[in-house]
Amino acid sequence: MKYTIGLTGGIASGKTTVTNIFENFGINIIDADKIAKQVVSPKSDALEEIKKKFGNKIIKDNELNRALLRKIIFKDKSAKMWLESLLHPIILEQVVKDISLSSSPYCILSAPLLFEANFQKLTKRNITVLTTMTSQVNRVIKRDNVDLIQAKAVISNQLSNKMKIRLSDDIITNNSNLKNLKNKVLSLHIQYQQFSRI
């Protein structure tokens, strides 16, 4: 199995910025979020199962109505568990395939639910990207066009940073400028290249 680094972090912590930097160093990124969108594309088996479960209202313009689905699973834990049991194995299968096709010295598996979905069983090391709660809240409000209460609710619904730190080998704090962030990623990149040769 290709030497794989798991990368996670809370919503709006800067995961995409960090993976972009790794990608600029020539590292293949396997993005679990993108795969999650692909597996529920129009006419997919998974989308049909979701439609059977939640009804036609869950489809908008032939596509999954993500906003409505988020609302449903946010309020109903059993619906969330059902959805995860449907999607996680399909996503995992594609992730494994993409890892096997990676051509860089190591690859990054970027997954917001890295630990919740047990994807860390595929990784040798794990990174958590951290930022301040204020930055997270402000970014969520701006990006998702929600109010302060909604932004805080979304953040509190995720695995805590404390738990992510405990489960991670490396931490990237994203509280400074882009130059500092690039230097942190470069330092890890050099380490990971060495680890992948062992």
From TrEMBL:
Gene from which the chain derives: coaE
Protein location: Cytoplasm
Protein's organism: Paraphotobacterium marinum
Residues reported to bind ATP: A12, S13, G14, K15, T16, T17
Pathway of action: Cofactor biosynthesis; coenzyme A biosynthesis; CoA from (R)-pantothenate: step 5/5
GO cellular component: cytoplasm
Catalysed reactions, semicolon-separated: 3'-dephospho-CoA + ATP = ADP + CoA + H(+)
UniProt-recorded name of the protein: Dephospho-CoA kinase
Role played: Catalyzes the phosphorylation of the 3'-hydroxyl group of dephosphocoenzyme A to form coenzyme A.
Keywords noted in UniProt: ATP-binding, Coenzyme A biosynthesis, Cytoplasm, Kinase, Nucleotide-binding, Transferase
Superkingdom assignment: Bacteria
CDD domains per record: DPCK
One term of GO molecular function: dephospho-CoA kinase activity
Pfam family, one: CoaE
GO biological process assignments: coenzyme A biosynthetic process
Family, as annotated: Belongs to the CoaE family.
Entries under InterPro entries matching the protein: Depp_CoAkinase (IPR001977), P-loop_NTPase (IPR027417)
